[in-house]
Amino acid sequence: MGFTGWPPDALTFYEGLEADNSKAYWTAHKDIYESAVRAPMEALCESLAVQFGPAKIFRPYRDVRFSKDKTPYKTAIAAAAEGEGGTGYYVMLSTAGLYAGAGYYMMASDQLERYRAAVADDGAGPELATALDKLPRSYGLGEPAMKVTPRGYPRDHPRAELLRQKSVHIGRQFPPAKWLNTAKTRDRVVEAWTAGQPVFDWLDRHVGPSTLPPPDAR
Q1: Looking at the domain assignment, is residue 1 inside a domain?
Q2: Under a CB-based contact definition with an 8 Å cutoff, are residues 136 and 195 in contact?
Q3: Are 107 and 117 contacting, i.e. CB atoms less than 8 angstroms apart?
Q4: What confidence tens digit (pLDDT) does each residue in 8-25 have?
């Protein structure tokens, strides 16, 4: 079946899970999760795969091994895809509504090296700054992860704020609305995933995917 939105039961499911994050609640309502939450996400991802690449839906179980919070289940469903050039795409549904964003989130060390070199370059760097300045008002870049510029770059560099970024991810939170129950939800995701296209093109051109092995393979 094609994507037709999430039914109201999806948010109702998560409202209940937030109130009672237990195996008993999950077991009693798992059929609702499968039909009203996961199945629409699968349909959405399938409908976007040709344009943005195949997506992976994250497991609903939390990793509680190193967390003081031992609640077993995530109170949101999310999926991520990666385009051929390296741009990552992310979408999440929760009681807060729909979040969708794209870009390079938490770049690996080799990506950061290429990113910083391009930002510092007087030819490539201003192109990224200009593309970010032209973003729609409802979208923007998050605060820098570093308090000072990385080693090897002057603190008074004209693009110091960009050099302090470890992620260049552009997204938007859409609050709950009736369109969530319709196919128009897909339009909001596409809007968010393409709002920063000039930025993503710059990242794909100057940074690209990491060439390092996955952490668990190192």
Answers
A1: no
A2: yes
A3: no
A4: 999 999 999 999 999 999
